[in-house]
Design a protein that fits this description.
Helix content: 55-70%
Bound molecules: magnesium ion
Number of helices: 4
Shape: globular
CATH topology: Helix Hairpins
Number of domains: 1
Distance between the termini: 33 Å
Strand content: under 5%
Largest sheet: none
Radius of gyration: 16 Å
Order of helices and strands: HHHH
CATH architecture: Orthogonal Bundle
């Protein structure tokens, strides 16, 4: 499955389940839902619940793909472009982290 196809399917499910009703959730609130999933992944890591980590990582990706599609961005093209940009960068981007 291509990334854009996944994004379309994820967004269609989110719409169907009522998570894209106009005016209910702002762009910023949706971004914070990504952070919430990252927090859940961190909690699973801290509790050594390794079996739960993949699902939380999947939740992060799902939230991002839903947002991208919902706001009309071609995330597959954006990822491909950014991967090329990253490949061209120097080791550790000439910095520390
Ligand atoms: Mg989660």
């Amino acid at each position: 499955m291509h990334i854009r196809d996944a994004a379309r399917e994820i967004h269609a499910t989110a719409v169907e389940k009522g998570f894209w009703n106009p005016g209910e959730i702002t762009f910023g609130e949706r971004l914070m839902l990504v952070v919430t999933e990252a927090s859940e992944a961190m909690q699973a890591y801290k509790k050594k619940q390794d079996d739960e980590i993949p699902e939380e990582l999947a939740d992060i990706v799902i939230r991002v793909l839903d947002m991208a599609e919902g706001y009309g961005y071609d995330i597959e093209a954006a990822i491909a472009a950014k991967m090329q940009k990253n490949k061209a960068r120097p080791y550790k981007h000439n910095g520390r982290l």
